[in-house]
Amino acid sequence: MLNWDEIEAQALAAVEQQTKAHERIALFNTKKVLAAFAKNQVADFYLKPSTGYAYSDIGRDKLDAIYADICKTDAALVRSHFVSGTHAISTALLGVLRYGDEMIGATGTPYDTLQTVIGTAGKVPGSLLDMGITYKEIPMEGGNPDLAALAKAITAKTKLIHIQRSCGYSNVRRTLTVDEIGTICQAAKKVKPDIICFVDNCYGEFMEEKEPTEVGADLMAGSLIKNLGGGLAPNGGYIVGRKDLVELASYRLTAPGLGGEMGATLGDTAREFYQGLFLSPHVVLQALKTAIFAAQVFKDLGYKVSPEPDAKRSDIIQVVTLETAAKLCAFCEAIQANSPIDAHVKPIPSHLPGYADEVIMAAGTFVQGASIELSCDGPMRPPYNVYFQGGLTFEHGIVAIMEAAKKIGALR
User: How far apart are CA 360 and CA 370, in angstroms?
Assistant: First the structure.
C-alpha cells in the first residue's frame, strides 16, 4: 500500500533542496526585467491599444526594445500576430532563407510541428524544401550535439544552422544549456564565420541568467504563451537577434517594406504582454518547482524520468516514461480534472495539425494551449512519454501531480 503523504513529503523536500539556485536566477532575471523597463521609461500610455495601421505605436515599439535589451540583441519583433511558437520560428526561417540556401539541423530531428515547416514530414506546400531550400540533419550523439559531424556537414551554401534548446518529443535527446548552445555556435562559426545560428528557445526563457543570444546565437524565436508571457499573454510570439535578420523576418510577417512598423495592438494585449513579462521570472520558477516535484514523485513510484530531480535544468519540461497508453491517458485525465478551466472535460487522443501521431493533451488553461500554465501532452506511441510543463502556482502543481500519481497507481 503506497503512503501518498510520505511520497508528497519526500518530493517537497527534493524541491526545497534543488530550487535554491533557481531562486537566485529568478531574482537576477527580475532585476534584468526591471532594468529594461526603467531604461525604456515604461509608462501607463504604453499599455493602451492601437488600431488600423498602428503607425508610431510606442507601446509596441518599446516592448520590442525591452526584449532586445533583455536578450542583449540589436532588435526584436514581439507581436500578437504570431499564432504560435512554430509560427514565429517559421517566420524567422522563411524570412532569412532563400532558394538554393541550405539549413542544417544541428541538434537532431526537431519538434514535430517544425518538421512540416521544413518539409521532412511529407510534401507540404510553402515548406522550406518546397521553396528550394535544402536541409541536412545531424543526429545527436549519445544525447549530445555531434560537433565534428556538424563541422564536416557545413558547406559554402550552408546559410543557417537550427538549434533546438528543448528536448521536444524525442526519446534520445535532452535539453541543452545556454553554454552548450554557445559551444555549437562557436563550432559552426569556426568553419564558416558568416553562418547564421538560429535557436528555437521555446520553454527555456529565464531558466538561466543568460539567453542563447548572449553566447553566439544570431537569431532566436519563441512563444508568448510559454515562459515570457508569464501566464497573462493571450497569444503571440517573439523574434530577437541581429537587426538585419529581424528585419527580414518582419518582412515575412507583414510585407516587404512594411516590416515591424505596422501592426495594431488590440484590446488589452499591450498590458498583458508587459505585465506578463514582468511576472515571467517568478512564474518560470513556479513551473520549475512543479517539474522537480513531478520528477521526484514519479521516480519514487519507479518510473523513468528526465531530467532527474537533481539535474541541472534549462527548460520547464519534465518527461515521465509511463510505458503504456492507458497510463499516459490516465495521467492527462488527472491533470485535466485538476485544472481551473474545463475540469469536467476528458481528454482523448486525436490527430492535430503538424503531428505525425495521435496526441493526447491536457490543458485546462485560462489561455487555450498555454504551456506555461499547468499542462501536459504526449504522442500515442511507445514508450508513451508524457511531457509535463508549466504551473502558474506551485501549490496547483502539487495538487495535480499527486492526483495523477494516484490515478496511475490505481492501474497497477
Answer: 15
Distance CA 119, CA 112 (A): 11
In the chain, DSSP finds a helix count (H) and a strand count (E) of 11, 12
User: Cα separation of 34 and 49, whole Å?
Assistant: 22
- Evaluate whether 175 touches 168 at the Cβ level (below 8 Å): no
Closest CA to 332 of 251, 254, 389: 389
| Cβ atoms of residues 246 and 239 within 8 Å | yes
The pLDDT tens digits for 83-131 are 999 999 999 999 999 999 999 999 999 988 899 999 998 888 999 999 9
Q: Is-contact 230 277, C-beta < 8 A?
A: yes
How far apart CA 310 and CA 292 sit, in angstroms, is 8
Beta bridge partners of 137: 105
Interatomic CA distance for residues 291 and 53, integer angstroms: 42
Closest CA to 135 of 105, 106, 155, 109: 105
Rounded to whole angstroms, the Cα distance separating 293 from 310 reads 11
Three-state DSSP class for 97? coil
Helix, strand, coil tally for the chain in percent (to 5)? 40, 15, 45
- Cβ proximity of 161 and 183 under 8 Å: no
Rounded-to-integer distance, Cα 279 and Cα 26, Å: 10
Which letter does DSSP use for residue 351 in this model?
A: -
pLDDT for position 354: 65
CB–CB of 305/319 below 8 Å?
yes
Residue 63 and residue 67: Cα distance in Å, rounded?
6
Summarize pLDDT for 162-202 with one digit per residue, the tens. Answer: 999 998 777 667 899 999 999 999 999 999 999 999 999 99
Domains within the chain, CATH numbers bracketed? 4-27+279-409 (3.90.1150.60), 51-276 (3.40.640.10)
Query: Which regions of 183-246 does DSSP assign to beta strands (E)?
Result: 196-200, 219-223, 237-241
The reported pTM is 0.95
HSE of 137, CA atoms in CB hemisphere, 13 A: 11
**How far is residue 111 from each of residues 108, 116, 200, 411, measured CA to CA in Å?**
10, 10, 10, 30
Give the pairing of strands 75-79 and 134-137.
unpaired
pLDDT at 355 over 80: no
pLDDT tens string 153-172: 999 999 999 999 998 777 66
- What is the DSSP-derived secondary structure letter of residue 177? P
